[in-house]
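Cross-posted from the bioinformatics board.
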Amino acid sequence: MSGDLAGILPEIVVAGGGLLLLVLPRVRAPRLLGLITLAFLAAAFDLKLLAWSARPFPQSLFYGLLKEDGFSLFFQLLILVSIGFVTLSIMGYGRQEVKARRELYALLLLTTVGLMLVVGAQHLALVYVGLETISLFSYLLTGFLKRESLSAEGALKYFLFGSLASGVLLYGISLLYGLTGTMDLPGLADRLTPVMAQAHWAASISLLFLLVGLSFKVALVPFHMWAPDAYEGAPTPVAAFLSLGPKLAGFALLVRVFLVGISPQLGLWPDLLVLLSILTMTVGNLAALAQTNVKRLLAYSSIAQAGTMAIGLAVATPMGLTATLYYLLAYLLMNVGAFVGVIAVGNAGGREDLGAFSGLSRKEPLLAAMIAVSFLSLAGIPPMAGFFAKLWIFGAALKANAVGLAVVAAVNSVVALFYYMKVVKAMYLDPPTAGAPAIPRSRSLGLALGLCTVGLFAVGLWPGIWLTLSANALPFPLPAGRFP
Amino acid sequence: MAFLARHLLSLIVFLPLAAGLAILFIPKERDRWIQAAANGATLLVLILTGWLALHFQPQAPGFQWEEAVPWIGPIHAWYHLGLDGISLPLVFLTALLSFLAAVASTTIPERRKEFFFLYLLLESGMLGTFLALDLFLFYIFWEVVLVPMYFLIGIWGGPRREYAAIKFFLYTLAGSVFMLLSILTCYLRSPAHSFSIPELIGKGLQLGPAAQWWVFLGFFLAFAIKVPIFPFHTWLPDAHVEAPAPISVLLAGVLLKMGGYGFLRISFPLLPHVAIGFSLIMGILGLINIVYGALVAMAQSDFKKLVAYSSVSHMGFVLLGLSALNLTGFNGAALEMFNHGMITGGMFLLVGILYDRTHTRELDAFGGLGAKIPVYGGLLSFFALASLGLPGLSGFVSEFLALLGCFPTHPAITIASASGLVVGAAYFLLMLQRILLGPLKPQWSGLPDAGRREIFTLVPLMIFILWIGLYPRCILALQTPALTNLLFRLGGNIGW
């Protein structure tokens, strides 16, 4: 048992950090809060790296409830990095009433624990509990500006849709338990195979409910309605968090539950996921075209990006999953870059629409260039990481003979270019608005944006390393000749 | 030195980019340094490519100065550059036009640091596209060209620059994503499991006839938008007209050639059966380009638009030559790309010179300038005559070769296409008449003639135009062996 506890030491450290922040006496310098948070995240990150190098995995913890394998480590590292970025962006956020609050950092760290635990889940009860932990904290974070109607509205919408999705998920789990008598993910496929033959409809409905519940977390269309409002209402760093944390966990669980647990041979879920990904890309991109608020634009963009990532799962091949993992890595960097850009621009005058970006390249050339790199990467322009991520996805779809899917994804990437370029256009082509306030310097934002820019080029120019890393993180052994 | 000699092509490709990055660190006030750095870098690239052209062995098989380094291990993508007779003229063209247009960029009024950074990034992308021998690398360079071009049109362009820039970007990207799918299909369906163009050609593709057509069409869409082939040409008049003059030079002189080069380098050798089946369609598209482009050019009252549409017409001859599937036609197509780059590049420089002085491009606003600015008038007449295909100048040679090659393959199309030459002569002569002849308008009485710098940017082009017009073998000898190889693969007629 003590070995099990040692296995989740990083999670314990993060939880301890969250609790410590709650009981901390009021501090003068809000920067200290962020630094403490970062220190705990860094400690957990180090421990996870240690686990990566020292431990023979996969390792089963708590009687098979949790699994420490390359897959969960990959996601946990991504989660820690993204929470680190979110913390940096909170530290650079202009609104004092947000960044000086201990609860915000505490909530963030406690959510992190949920995220880190859920990606290793091997039991459906843990899946549900983990997701609820994440969701509850996310609702709170979204409504953090409680006196602002937009924030409250976003949080309420998120909460209402989220509870419905949780209910649906729970219903699916209970149906599945009733049919198979187990909630353990390993061995679920064996139990499910005869049930699929005998009670086809009941089993299919239970799988459908599971899929709907998880789709809500990654905001696949048509379960995305909460996302734009929640993003717009939430404080911008929280919006960045919403676009990363729950998505990472949702994708990890889609893999754990469907790809590994239930297996692609059972049920129609791969076909459904193909349909969902087509819908998500198309609706996300078309809706983003009309946005003028950059936060909303990014909300729809992250919906569309999730749709593209889902292709890798829908084709259900090792190559597809590798592509999705690589995509998540690239998405993390470019999305953080874009959101940090919004925060930096918003700090100046509180505006987050396209007009606030006008002429940014003349006032702040470096900042504009870094934001442009993030947006160009989101649009899939080489040699940034976003291009390679799209490329692997296209390749995986073509390899699986899903030519139609690849074509839809390709056309969508052209549509997406248009709205990403709207932001770039505003920064570079439009003249600066007269009398616009100067952008306050922020070291933490500069650091975050710089890291993202360097990372996007590093992941893009040396894609081989990251591709191998993603391939080694697959939750199942690779067949020989993993790449054609 | 030995290291540099082995990586000469990499040096050529990345030297402009390095210079561009260096320019970012020059203080804004030191404008002369910025201009000097850009001129120097592009001149150095030009010298290096000139050295390449002099030491090129036309008869040697395969590629020369080849460089191959593994890049993305898991998918066998290589950093692979090489030069052969098809790419050499275009690389030289790129280097020459980049240098001359950089010299001509003194007229760019503002944000010059950014301008030259993007300009040099663009040059790196163009050179890389012509030198890449790995499909993956080719695609990256192909895309890298788009981003600086978007900004160069969008920031320093004319009144409708934003529209033109995003239209250019969207059109080209729409073509290239389909090319990307085709590239991936080639990779997945070849026993070579590689992106290497020579290797894919050597080992062939395992694709059914229908699938081969689809792959070809994927490539075709990307190249057709770049060439541009009717009906994918609508981005061109907008982009050319709105772009600042030096950028129009590169747009017409180099970027359009990327499409034609793609056919010769990738689609034809990789999918020979489809290429043969596609010949008739290519010929018809060439005919439409020639006649339609010429007729629309005839109707223009805007100087720059006229030149832009004349490009559409001239690129039709490239298509015509490609559809011939014999050595004469291919030689004509490849040479027409080179010549069109020189001639139209010069035309756009001339448009820029006049626009800088008068701030109008309306043909009817001019008249009688021949007597007022005789040097300019002479230069303009020279380039217009080269463009309409006057024998003795280079345009004639390549258009004649393309028609000659196409005649045995598609006689009817060739005869109809020849009418384009007549219309071409008509609109160019009318253009000369409207600008140079007639009474001088009073507002142009103080117009200065072409300056030394402006003449300097045009004279090298005139030398080449005249030289190739009188002695076309100097280029044909370079490219013929490579084109013969390609025709062997296609099973076409390798006789003249």
